[in-house]
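Here we describe the complex-level prediction in full. Unlike the single-chain runs in Section 2.1, the two entities below were treated as one system.
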Amino acid sequence: MPVKRRQILLRTVVGWLAALVMFFPVFWMALAAFKTEMDAIAWPPLFFFKPTLANFAEMQERVDYIGHAWHSVAVAFGSTALALVLAAPAAYAMAFFPTKRTRGTLLWVLSNKFMPAVGVLVPIYLILIFVGWLDTLRGLIILNLFANLPIVLWMLYSYFKEVPGEIIEAARMDGARHDQQLRLVLLPLSAPGIASTALLAIILAWNESFWCINVSTVNSATLALAIASFSNPEGFFWAKLSAASLASVAPIMVFGWLTQRQLVRGLTFGAVK
Amino acid sequence: MAPAIGSLAVWAVVPTLLTLWFAFQGYNLLTPPKGFVGFRNFYFLLTDPGLPTVLLNTALLVVWPLALTIGLGTALALAYNDAFYGRGIARLLVIAPFFVMPTVSALVWKNLFMNPVYGLFAGICRMLGLTPIDWFANWPLASIVIIVTWEWTPFATLIILTSLQSLDRDLLEAALLDGARGFARFVYVVLPHLARTIAVVAMIETIFFLGIYAEIAVTTVGGPGIATTNLPFLIYSRALLGFDVGAASAGGILAIILANIVMVLFMRTIAREL
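The structure predicted for the assembly as a whole is:
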């Protein structure tokens, strides 16, 4: 069928063209990361050049990549782990022992995600000063925990709901306590769902910029803030900016790609599956 | 269940009440507290000659990216709905921008692309014999709209694509048999199916776009003048640059009210399907 074949070819061209345009800024940044500063601003733009790793060494010296990466890892993984521990029992209770108020509670949880962070910037800032947690990893982990808790709770709830109630019931008949039902039956059964919930929360916390820019300076600065320090115009450091950017973005992009199918459910609170 | 809901409640209620409390206080960290001042902070906020511009900027930074991401996202989703060679990999490339942290997106666009001398766009302009555009000086708001659109088009694409793939194939074939082709099929069959999804995308994006902050903080810092200052950036500059707790809190209350209007609309749309 030549018509059908031509359609597929046409779609291939259009689809790839769109993909290359959307991806070009990331590609261009990745390329610049391996250029010398002179090559990075050369005209005509260089697609072929002698690659160098010097930027990565200098980026470590200039912005202390490894130190900031550690903060990012601590904040992203720490806040996600805490969110899962807090949310799992709540999601379990709401999925298997719904009451009249469950629906209202869920909607209220969701509504928290809609609160603009900037609306509570002042009190949060003052509270952090008051308890001495300003610019600490603890403080930033707590902020990210609460920023993501509604999404985590919702996603876990929606995955738990897919587990047949009879299985939980059978475990209860066999004498399993609530925590045993949750730990030994529910968690293994919904492991893939929990994994994608965790991945989404990690991605969101890794890229979180508002709180980090506003409450961190040195001791808890994540990569998002380290990159922001390149915004001061003190000469051209495009190659170094690109190297630091690439090193900050690449790990989390792999996470994102791994979880892309589950992402939709998490980001729309289950409204689109 | 109690720990999660309880801590979330504390998190949700205490800071909001504090914002409300501070909004009625004459409290600047640089001067002695003046105590309760009634609606004075709101009075100064609402009569600030810059406020109309700030609100307009806030609205433009919601409306433009919304229209662009949903338009582009729908087009991309349609392009990716049917199989073609290498679709899986092409789709990974399309959604990649969503995982780039805002500070990186903003700085890469500002420097590598929009720099008036060495940027890629400037070079292309010169090649075509045109005068390069000084993006952040002459089109600051448009520049930020472009960056935000690039970041969020993958989100719209991914969600609209998911919804498209749940569209019943039989329905499309029935429409084809009834003589609906191409455009007619899109308008009368596909678009009604997508309507709710697009509403969901629009509302989630609105919430995020109302809070655009990092992209401004690392590029224009709200300027030139207040040309790119939106509500979040105004509150930030009152609070952490001006140390005016009262004024910033009054702005915060305004932001909370705006977000709640969007939220109520969102809840009405999705709550039915819970």
